[in-house]
Amino acid sequence: MDTAHEAPIITFSGVSKFYGDFQVLKNIDFSARAGERIVICGPSGSGKSTLIRCINGLEAHQSGTITVDGIRLGADAASTRKVRSEVGMVFQQFNLFPHLTVIENLMLGPVRARGMSRPAARDLAMRYLNRVRIPEQAEKYPRQLSGGQQQRVAIARSLCMEPRIMLFDEPTSALDPEMINEVLDVMVELAGTGMTMIVVTHEMGFARKVADRMVFMDHGEIVEVAPPAEFFTAPKSRRCQDFLQKILNH
Amino acid sequence: MKRFFLVPVLALLLSGCSSNWGWYVVNPSTKAGWTNLSFLLSGLKYTVALSLTAIVISVTLGLLVALPGLSSNRWLRGASRGYVELVRAVPILVMILWVYYGLPQLTGLTIGVFWAGVIALALSDSAFEAEIFRAGIQSIAKGQYEAAYSVSLGYGDTMRYVILPQAIRRILPALGNQLVYMLKMSSLVSVIGMQELTRKANELVVTEYRPLEIYTILVLEYLALILVVSAGVRWLERRMQTDERA
Ligand SMILES: Nc1ncnc2c1ncn2[C@@H]1O[C@H](COP(=O)(O)OP(=O)(O)OP(=O)(O)O)[C@@H](O)[C@H]1O
Ligand SMILES: [Mg+2]
Q1: B152 to chain A: which residues are within 8 Å by CB?
Q2: What are the helix (H) ranges across chain A?
Q3: How many whole angstroms separate alpha carbon A68 and alpha carbon A79?
Q4: Tens digits of per-residue pLDDT, A62-81?
Q5: Where is the ABC transmembrane type-1 domain (chain B) (predicted)?
Q6: Cβ contacts of B226 within 8 Å, gap of 6 or more
Q7: For chain B, how many structural domains are there in total?
Q8: Within 13 Å and on the Cβ side, how many CA atoms surround B161?
């Protein structure tokens, strides 16, 4: 499929963000097409989380413009909510709602934000729990599940909003090694459905398998953007070479 | 259970270790004693009604004061802070007098003793409830807001369905304390003539001249009431926690 001429679904142009005097994002220009899978990597503190959190308005930016699915972020609260209904987000720490059962975690957004009836939301939630392969955990509370199961619930919770874009911020970094694959498998499967995905991760095996483009960030800048084949074999910048050395040879 | 050691202590205290006791005054097997005792107990419903109405209002008010106190807008924060500092500085007895005698002059409306008592107690308590809510809400991790916002919930729904249910579980013991405190402070409303437990006891003492027995009964009435409340709060705490832990 030739997507090169499609209008991008996410556009950053000249985006800067500051914490006081400290500039976290430096004049970021970046865009992603619908259905594209982008993996972002870079050293700790380089601004990866900040960048993807700007996409659903969890962080505000101070200059430049961010457009998501035709909606410009930061204009007003209503447009931010509109964007959030199109963009799912999965966090490193899962952030499930501990006082709600798994199924209630999944139903909350559809019922309260999309105005679905409870029975319809329950059906939808069961469908996505099946998709992440834990339908039998529906009535349990999050703390009764393993980390890998919790993260899959978190993915299902986002999918219940039927978003066009999914953001992942180091979704496997808080997991024990033996649970990483069950989460990555779900993500690979999701990539196969044509979902637009922006993933911050250091799982380079996953990146190779799934990414259309790799983005390398350092000190608040996008230093390099390339397809994985090129990115891993012939990184152009010195900083990117150093980084890859470190994470591939540890 | 620790509190049962109170029973022998009280029994000792009441078992005529002194010749000064005159329990006839509230002896339910005599006609006069029964009349006196039921007179004392008849204050119970007012104490309970007063405290419960006041606590419902003060918890609501406390939450409404706490929320702007957590806003990023400094005027809202300032207003919340100002309310807490001002209301917290007024002694409860002074608040009762001010509401009962002062407020009608200010507004032109006369208020009955019951509602004057409710308003004064609720106002006084609301400052503390606000502080409790603020601490409880602040104890919830930022990730909970982010997850709620990410499924497109607005501020109101996020508070109602995600943050407050968790915060309330955490502050339940503190809310229980406030209810106990409220029951005790309701005795002050006797000064404006509210016919609650303390007022009844005072009136009976004036006619019977047996302060020791009558005030001892009064102590026991509050004790019983508060033990019931504590047990209720514990039960609620247990129930809400098994919800999450199981
Ligand atoms: N609330 C904040 N206030 C001040 N500085 C912040 C804040 N949040 C992040 N930063 C700083 O912004 C920079 C970028 O942070 P960010 O979390 O985006 O990095 P990251 O690339 O995701 O790092 P990591 O790999 O450790 O998750 C860091 O230097 C961090 O210290
Ligand atoms: Mg990060």
Answers
A1: 81, 84-85, 109, 113-114, 161
A2: 48-55, 77-86, 102-112, 118-131, 147-159, 177-191, 204-210, 228-233, 238-248
A3: 10
A4: 999 999 999 999 888 889 99
A5: 44-233
A6: B180, B183, B184
A7: 1
A8: 24
How far apart, in whole angstroms, are the C-alpha atoms of residue A222 and residue A220? 7
Atom of ligand 1 nearest to the CA of A217: 21
Closest by Cβ to A85, choosing from B152, B166, B245: B152
Interface test with B, best of A50, A91, A95 (most B CBs within 10 A): A95
Tokens coding B82: 């100002």
Residue B17 domain-assigned (yes or no): no
Is the confidence at residue B174, as pLDDT, over 80?
Answer: yes
- Is B40 within a domain? yes
Give chain A positions within 8 Å (CB) of B151.
Answer: 84, 88, 108-109, 113, 157-158, 160-161
AA identity, residue A201: T
Amino acid of residue A74 = G
Q: Is residue B27 part of a domain?
A: no
- Strand A63-68 versus strand A71-72 pairing type: antiparallel
Whether the per-residue pLDDT at A95 is higher than 90: the answer is yes
Output the six-digit token pair for B37: 């005792």
CB atoms within 10 A of CB A62: 12
A88 contacts B152? CB cut-off 8 A? no
Query: If you measure CA to CA, which chain B residue comes closest to A84?
Result: B152
Q: Are strands A10-19 and A22-32 parallel, antiparallel or unpaired?
A: antiparallel
ipTM, 2 dp: 0.94
Residue A172 contacts residue A201 (beta carbons within 8 Å) = yes
Chain centroid to CA B20: 34
Q: Which domain holds residue B120?
A: 36-245
Query: Looking at the complex, does the CB of residue A91 fall below 8 Å from at least one CB of chain B?
Result: yes
Nearest CA to ligand 1 atom 18: A47
| DSSP code string of B66-84 | HHHHTSS-HHHHHHHHHHH
d(CA B156, CA A112): 11
Helix (H, G, I), strand (E, B) or coil at A230: helix
- Which is nearest to B167 in space by CA: B136, B145, B132? B136
What single-letter amino acid sits at A87?
V
Interatomic CA distance for residues A171 and A167, integer angstroms: 10
The answer to whether position B24 is within a domain reads no
Q: Which amino acid is at B246?
A: A
For A133-146, what is each residue's pLDDT tens digit?
A: 999 999 999 999 99
The CATH code of the domain that includes B148 is: 1.10.3720.10
Contact (Cβ atoms closer than 8 angstroms) between residue B125 and residue B62: yes
